[in-house]
Specification:
- The protein is mostly helical and 195 residues long.
- The chain has a single domain, classed as Alpha/alpha barrel (Mitochondrial carrier fold), CATH 1.50.40.10.
- The protein is 72% helix and 0% strand.
- Helix 1 (11-43) packs across helix 3 (76-102).
- The two termini are 17 Å apart.
- Solcar repeats lie at residues 9-100, 109-192.
- InterPro entries: MCP_dom_sf, MCP_transmembrane, Mito_Metabolite_Transporter.
- It is a multi-pass membrane protein.
- Belongs to the mitochondrial carrier (TC 2.A.29) family.
Length: 195
């Protein structure tokens, strides 16, 4: 038996569902994210400095061999926070932005409105999630931090508040386009399966 909810879902429920799914998803995906961050960090090494990994598969095996299986979940705390926060920001803001746009005279529930709402959701996700994203990446790429709080404080102290928004435009380009595509597909799926 399939249970279906008919009607508007309260914003609080949307945020809670997005937080939970974002957290659960990254618990599974953390090893892959860790390998990605470490390989990216290696790409910044000067010429002549030996690389720790020859590729992604080698990175998994090397991390497990040298640091243990648990090391694949390095940075899990900030990564769970990042993914949960960004998920919640995307899903909750999309509906709110769309509702706001539809109140503007001349706007209709069409692809252009979904495109604007998707970009808005991506913008909010980057604004809200970028500080946690920066801390997560630094924790995964540099083992000198004691914990998440230490990383946050050192970044703020030595680089200032704007350090948490480094890479804002490329991040918005990635999340903005992701949200546009995701929500356009979801809206079209809703229309196809509407009874």
């Amino acid at each position: 038996m399939i249970l279906a909810f008919v009607g508007d879902i309260p914003l609080f429920h949307k945020i809670l569902a997005a937080l939970l799914t974002g957290a659960l998803a990254i618990i599974v995906a953390n090893p892959t994210d860790l390998v990605k961050v470490r390989l990216q960090a290696e790409g910044k090494l000067p010429a002549g400095v030996p690389r720790r990994y020859s590729g992604a598969v080698d990175a998994y095996f090397t991390i497990v061999r040298q640091e243990g299986v648990g090391a694949l979940w390095t940075g899990l705390g900030p990564n769970v926070a990042r993914n949960a926060i960004i998920n919640a920001a995307e899903l909750a803001s999309y509906d709110q932005v769309k509702e706001t746009i539809l109140k503007i005279p001349g706007f209709m529930d069409n692809i252009f409105t979904h495109l604007l709402a998707g970009l808005g959701a991506g913008f909010f996700a980057v604004c809200i999630g970028s500080p946690v994203d920066v801390v997560k990446s630094r924790m995964m790429g540099d083992s000198t931090y004691k914990n998440t709080f230490d990383c946050f404080i050192k970044t703020l102290k030595y680089e200032g508040f704007l350090a948490f928004y480094k890479g804002f435009l490329p991040n918005f380009g990635r999340l903005g386009s992701w949200n546009v595509i995701m929500f356009l597909v979801l809206e079209q799926a809703k229309n196809i399966f509407r009874v």
